[in-house]
Amino acid sequence: xxxxxxxxxxxxxxxxxxxxxxxxxxxxxxxxxxxxxxxxxxxxxxxxxxxxxxxxxxxxxxxxxxxxxxxxxxxxxxxxxxxxxxxxxxxxxxxxxxxxxxxxxxxxxxxxxxxxxxxxxxxxxxxxxxxxxxxxxxxxxxxxxxxxxxxxxxxxxxxxxxxxxxxxxxxxxxxxxxxxxxxxxxxxxxxxxxxxxxxxxxxxxxxxxxxx
Amino acid sequence: xxxxxxxxxxxxxxxxxxxxxxxxxxxxxxxxxxxxxxxxxxxxxxxxxxxxxxxxxxxxxxxxxxxxxxxxxxxxxxxxxxxxxxxxxxxxxxxxxxxxxxxxxxxxxxxxxxxxxxxxxxxxxxxxxxxxxxxxxxxxxxxxxxxxxxxxxxxxxxxxxxxxxxxxxxxxxxxxxxxxxxxxxxxxxxxxxxxxxxxxxxxxxxxxxxxxxxxxxxxxxxxxxxxxxxxxxxxxxxxxxxxxxxxxxxxxxxxxxxxxxxxxxxxxxxxxxxxxxxxxxxxxxxxxxxxxxxxxxxxxxxxxxxxxxxxxxxxxxxxxxxxxxxxxxxxxxxxxxxxxxxxxxxxxxxxxxxxxxxxxxxxxxxxxxxxxxxxxxxxxxxxxxxxxxxxxxxxxxxxxxxxxxxxxxxxxxxxxxxxxxxxxxxxxxxxxxxxxxxxxxxxxxxxxxxxxxxxxxxxxxxxxxxxxxxx
Lengths: 212, 471
Ligand code: SF4
What we know:
heterodimer, A: alpha/beta, 7 strands, globular, B: alpha/beta, five-stranded parallel sheet, 16 helices, 19 strands, binds iron/sulfur cluster
């Protein structure tokens, strides 16, 4: 997993609530057995005018000019601004894979669906919960000024706007630690092999039917 | 000190280690695996040179991609080459790592959330995970069950543990009794309508109250299945005698002395009387009528006697815009009576409603009637090979076929349309599945979520209809 410390980048506003994982990456792309290559199909049904299937040459497909991420001013955005309950729906990790592959390292929203939120951290994406008013303010500012950039500092847990205004955000200390150091969860857990084995030994005694 | 909730008890019993900052290592008893969210996890294991920690904790079956006709052709018979690769990748992974597996053409194969309980692979008191958000289903019998992403699938394979933060406790109590014709599906849709799709976010939800106790274990599975549609990763129902009876004689359930021991422990899987919940919601069962969703989110739901709501009446601007967009996508006008909405396709199946009781409910409505001539396709897809066989023994297949339904082979099918079963753009479907998102059942398809009985009623009438008036 790539480390995440600090990022200053263009912000793309996706002004819809309840953006679900089917919208982020439609199911026909879940048939891949890889983790990469989902970026060109992120938001496929909104982004293109035709129907996408795996194996198509996405560079020749007709883009939907009305879809916000297709606008010239948001090209190269690495921060996604979203509305409430972002990432609801399925547990598919293909959703964060697609967003990451597209280029997003930070997603800011008033609320996220739990599984998606968790999946983001596992892939080096920082999901930030900010209250509804602040998110609304950011939507206004992004739409008003082209080239709008935010600076996200994970160590300091702040978002800084172009005018210098700072918003603090919360992040779980363990997840922060993993993200800043690019740590792999499995390696960390395997440092506690003895604890796991001790638990199993105790549990086999208490509830042996669980080990048949 | 206040007593413990069911969730507290399950959490404490599986706690391996607490970390600073509130995260913990939680031990996982059962890991269900299917073909879509596992290939990258197995690949990760291989790349790191790791092995599954406990192969006996894993049960795998293909479900999302399998066709619902011609399954006897096996993997080779899957016509979509990419889907075929995914199913055969699962096949080779389970063989390589030596996991329990119900492959295509095994009578036990089916939707992973139907197969798990049916085999007794998921039991009360277990922690159950699967790379699938509807894992919440297994909470119906006092288990802690939730969906995980693929990185976590790999993590559980490698360590038998999950890094977790404890969720908050929420209780949804459905007081009193539902009227005739109102099912588990209607109860859970009404709950989602009340609390919203983010109402349970960050919480483990216990469903309680007389109306939940009245439900069969299968009905409780339907309710817990859709906990995730209310934002809750885990839904659960306390253990009672029905739960215990349900697991008697299940193939993987404990036997003999071990059974008695297990039952003893299971009886404690309830919330203490003085347990505290962070959030409580109460519904009156008597007010719930058969439900139909009208929009593109499960919270966009009303009773069958109601009308499609009007965004003009919504104060919240973002919400009103969402409603407008949904109405546009669904091709509906505000104010239209729900019972005037015609349907093109009917789908009875999915991990929400494809168990034997669901099929019985639908068959009771279909019996002696005919699918309306305006309905292009009406599919019945049993949740597993065993459900299919049971239904055939009871003659349900004949009832469906005589009424003009197609009787298919088990799998996820048109719930998410990864196989050949899908809606065409603009087609409108009465579906017993759990998600009505844009494009969920096929690009441009329009989904209305209903109970099996309501789906069958829509099939025979050609439009939504109050199933209580049919009888
Ligand atoms: S039936 Fe639908 S919701 Fe259930 S596991 Fe399959 S695809 Fe997911």
